[in-house]
Each structure stands twice: as C-alpha cells, then as structure tokens.
Design a protein that fits this description.
This protein is α+β, with helices and mostly antiparallel strands and about 575 residues long. The chain has 14 helices and 28 strands. Strands 1, 2, 3, 4, 10 and 11 form a six-stranded mixed β-sheet that branches. Strands 17-12-13-14-18 form a five-stranded mixed β-sheet. Strands 21-20-24-25 form a four-stranded antiparallel β-sheet, with no helix packed on it. Strand 26 and strand 27 (about 470-475) form a beta hairpin. The longest helix has 20 residues, at about 90-110. It starts with a strand and ends with a helix.
Length: about 575
C-alpha cells in the first residue's frame, strides 16, 4: 500500500498521522498508546536508544545522557556527548523519527517508507536540509517539507473549502514562533507572507519561571543550584508543569523536596506561583511578537481589520495572556477552530494525502501556494569606472515571501581584464551587506576565456523548490560551461557569533596556517585598506575551520583563497 504519513517533529513533542480508508485524518499512537510523544532521547550505556516518555523519565536519573529540545540545534554544528560518543542534532532527531516510523509501521501493519515532515515557516535553508537529512538517514523518503502554519491551515481548510477568508496563523510552539498570513478561496491556500522567531517559544517561558526559582532559592538560602545539573532538571520539569497548570487555574504550588544540600543537610523549597505573577514574567516576550505580526501583515499588504480569522496553533497559545494580547493590541479575537496541539500533524497527514491522491474521490481539490521566508542572494561587486571603487554587496535574486517553487536568473560580467574564474557566494538574509546576512555556501566557476573586463558574461540562476531548498548554478554564457551546488549542510558551519574564533590559536592545526593568517591580518589592519575581496570573511572562515576541525583539504582551500587575494593585492 506504501502509505505516506505526516509527521510533526516538534521541539517539545512530536506526533504522526495518516489518511485512513475513509479519507479522514487518523492519529497514530506510540508504543504506549499515546498520540503525543515527548521529543526526548535517552542513550543507555550499551548504546540503546530510548525515545519519548521513558526517555523523559530519565531526565532526573541520568541527565547527562538524556537530550531534549534538540530541534533548537538543527542547522548548527553542536555536538552532544553521551558515554564518550558524540551525536549531532540530526542524529538525535533521526532517533525520534525512527521511533515514530516504527510506531506507524506496527499500527498500519506495513513498512512505512514515505513521509511529509513539518518545519517552522521561519526555518532557514540549513535547518530544512538538516530535517531532510534526519529523515533520509533512517531510509525515509521525505516527500515534502511543509511549513507548520501552512499545515495547520490545511487542517482548517480541508473542512472549509467553500470559504473565502484572510487568515492569520499564529503558531507559538515549544521552541519557535511563526506568524503566517494566507488567503483561503475555492480550495486554494495562498500563503502571502511569513515571519517568525526561531529562538522564542514555550521554552523561554519555562526559563522565566526557572530563573525566578533559582534566584529565590539563592536569596533565601545562599545556595546556587544552577551548578547542579540534576537540580536544574527538576526545576525545569516543575516550571513546565507550573506553566501548563496556570493556563487552567489561578495558582500553582511548586514543591521541591531535597532540591539542594547545605552543609550536608538535604533541604527543600516551596513556592506558590499565581497566574498574574507568571504573566508578569512573560508579558514582554508575548508582546514582542507584535513585531512579527506587523511584519507579516505589512508583507501581505493587509491591515489587521482586514483579517477574517486568527488561528492559534501550538501549546504555548493555550496561555490566556495570548488571547488578551490579541484583543488589547490588535482588537482581534482568535478562534478555537483547530486543536492547537494536533493541527500541525493533522495538516501534515492531509498534505501526505494530497500527494497520494487520497481526496480525489471526495472532490476536494486543494492547492497550496507557499512562500520563501528569507531573501536569497549572492555576493557581487559594483562601482564606478575605477576597479578600486568597487564594493561588495548582496544581489537578492529571490525576495522573502516569494511564492514557491520559484526559479530566476541574472546576467553579470567580469570585472577585470583576463579574469579566468568567478566565485559565487550564496547568502540568506535581507541586507545588502554580506556581513549582516547568513553565509550558506560557495562554489567556483573557472575556465572563463581571457578577455577585456566586462566582455565575458556569467549567468547565475537560483531555484527554490517546494521543500524550501535552494539550488544555485552559474554558467559562462560564451562557452556554456557551468558549475553549481545544492547547498549541502555538511559544508555549512555555524555562524561566527556561535564560535569563539580566538580558540583557533590553541588548536593543533593552527601551526600550519598561523603565518598566512598573521600576514592577512596585517594587511587587513592597515588604515587605508578597503576589503573589497572579502579577505576578513576568509580569515574568519579559516579560523572557524580550525576551531571546528575541518578536513585539511577544506582548510587548504580557504588558505589558497587567502593567498590568491594576497597575491592580487601585492600586484
């Protein structure tokens, strides 16, 4: 039967569903009979992988080998260690996916090989590719990557295909915030814009309570429990329980017996948190989301009063303050038209059903038009008649909120006589300044025929697919020779902000590259030096590669780029 399933791979919890023989969404229970699985992984000493509630129960007993909220780390080079072995976020996510697929295979009594997986609308290209890799690493064919708000709108739209509405989907989950504006009409879901914050979710609300408790314990008893991992896990758990409880009750009693030791005596801590006090801790974070809402509405060319419906998605939206925020700031009343916990996985299953023609006999012809959430560009030179007047800028070929899939191209010319090659550097972000954007990857197109500056033309093409993944190519117009990339996350490293570049000096590989770095930095520090060749970026990339222990071949390639630039400057 080769059934396609839909998966919501969430920060806090994950779910899986499919379209049954009646053409209805059916949730698939995990091995414990529950529809919601905690996104927690525990690794036993013998290497056995435990996922879900049994793993979550190990958080206090064995926190060093238990991992949660790994979705926040997708797209980074973070390594998480357990029993002297390192695991990437992709690997840990694949363990969760495998568990869900095993549950589905058992429930459906067939091997499940295909899936639709949801991601936050504001996920970057790197994070989307990591999600694909997590699925593919367990032999899963990922048919489609779907934005979570779009999936939630599918859950609503499948039963409301006759309506014509402007809809705002406010998806506030455990780890991320997405705001998507879309139009529903005649079975079409036309996404107009998306905006979000990949670093804001229910996790931050848990931490607001945690920080208060740690500070209170410290003030009362002069004990810093933040240094004790097991104590912090217990505080994290009770903070999450408190947050959830205060959505339906006015106060919650926190009781932490034996939370710390003072002079060898185990002592406890208790505190009653009221809803009003909790809301005072998180109000600034909730109200900060107004920026994302305004941006999404502006990009969609709509005013708040033109919205017909606000849909709340994600567990965080159960907090009463969220509805108060919409009423106070936008004079809008969100409606409970979908299950905030299950709308995304239900939508993922519906998308799987669309791919598999499950709704053809029901006359439900659904069309989805989604968008690219971030602008995509490549680095270029521009300037006047004098070569040294040129400056670097990012030429945006795909603007944010462009409907996908989308392909575009532009023609460029060589900038100096007898130029034999061009390096295409790809960026993601809204600025013209490359330093303010996220560097994705680069490739080299060589073999340009020698000619005067401006005579040879280079065609650069961008293609952005339905999974939100970018392919870039460049072609020498006169010869047809081309090169390109499908951006590979294995070669995309963390941003410089995530890495202490000064650590390069202490690494073993630093010896080989120290002299070229020093020479380049000396030129870079000259007062009249104008870095039109991106020398600083190459130096930082080399340092980053040393810190992150790139392969020598990769480091040598960066070193050679620096040497080529130095040679050009010396000429």
């Amino acid at each position: 039967m080769d059934k396609i399933v839909g998966i919501d791979l969430g920060t806090s919890t994950s779910e899986i569903a499919f379209i049954n023989d009646k053409g209805e969404v059916e949730l698939i229970p995990n091995h414990l009979g529950e529809f919601i699985t905690p996104s927690v992984v525990h690794i036993k000493e013998n290497g056995e992988i435990i996922v879900g509630m049994p793993a979550k129960e190990q958080l206090i007993l064995d926190p060093e080998n238990t991992f949660m909220e790994v979705k926040r780390l997708m797209g980074t080079d973070t390594l998480l260690k357990s029993h002297d072995k390192s695991y990437t976020p992709v690997q840990l996510s694949s363990f969760i996916l495998k568990y869900l697929i095993d549950c589905a295979s058992e429930y459906l009594n067939e091997e499940v090989k295909r899936a639709v997986i949801t991601v936050p609308a504001y996920f970057t290209d790197v994070q989307r590719r990591d999600t694909l890799k997590a699925g593919e690493s367990i032999g899963l064919k990922v048919e489609r990557i779907v934005n979570e708000p779009t999936a939630a709108s599918l859950d609503y739209g499948i039963m409301n295909m006759d309506k014509c509405q402007n809809v705002l989907v406010y998806d506030f989950g455990g780890g991320t915030l997405d705001v998507t504006v879309l139009e529903l009409f005649e079975g079409v879901i036309d996404v107009k814009s998306s905006c979000g914050n990949n670093s804001l979710g229910g996790k931050e609300f848990d931490e607001a309570i945690m920080n208060y408790l740690v500070e209170k314990i410290n003030k009362q008893h002069k004990i810093n429990v933040s240094d004790d991992l097991r104590s912090m896990v217990r505080i994290k758990q009770v903070s999450e329980e408190c947050k959830i409880a205060l959505s339906s009750q006015n106060d919650f009693n926190i009781d932490l017996p034996f939370i710390y030791n003072k002079k060898g005596t185990p002592l406890g801590f208790s505190e009653t948190i009221t809803r009003d006090f909790f809301e005072s801790l998180i109000k600034d974070k909730v109200y900060s989301t107004l920026d994302q809402i305004k941006t999404a509405l502006l990009d969609a060319n709509l005013k708040s009063e033109e919205l017909d419906l606000v849909i709340l998605v994600g567990g965080t939206t159960k907090i009463p303050l969220i509805k108060d925020f919409f009423k106070n700031e936008l004079n809008l009343t969100p409606e409970s038209v979908v299950d905030p916990d299950l709308a995304v996985v239900r939508g993922a299953a519906i998308q799987a059903g669309i791919i598999d023609d499950e709704f053809k006999d029901q006359g439900k012809d659904i069309v989805i038009a989604d968008v690219c959430p971030h602008s995509l560009s490549h680095e270029c030179l521009r300037g006047g008649s004098d070569f040294w007047d040129f400056d670097l800028f990012c030429d945006i070929l795909i603007k944010r909120n462009t409907t996908i899939p989308y392909e575009t191209q532009n023609i460029y010319q060589t900038v100096h006589d007898n130029q034999r090659e061009v390096e295409v550097k790809v960026y993601q972000g809204e600025s013209e300044d490359p330093k303010e954007n996220t560097f994705l990857n680069k490739f080299l197109l060589s073999g340009i025929p020698p000619a005067r500056a401006g005579k040879e033309k280079i065609k650069v093409a961008f293609s952005y697919d339905l999974n939100g993944i970018l392919s870039v190519s460049a072609e020498i117009v006169s010869t047809g020779k081309s090169a390109g990339i499908e951006i590979d996350t294995r070669s995309i490293k963390s941003s410089d902000q995530d890495i202490d570049l000064e650590l390069w000096k202490d690494k073993e590989k630093a010896k080989k590259y120290r002299s070229v770095i020093r020479k380049a930095e000396k030129i870079l520090n000259e007062e009249d030096f104008d870095d039109i060749f991106g020398l600083e970026d190459d130096i930082n990339e080399l340092k980053k590669g040393i810190v992150l222990d790139y392969d020598v071949s990769d480091l040598d390639e960066i070193k050679n780029d620096i040497l080529d630039t130095l040679e050009l400057l010396e000429d």
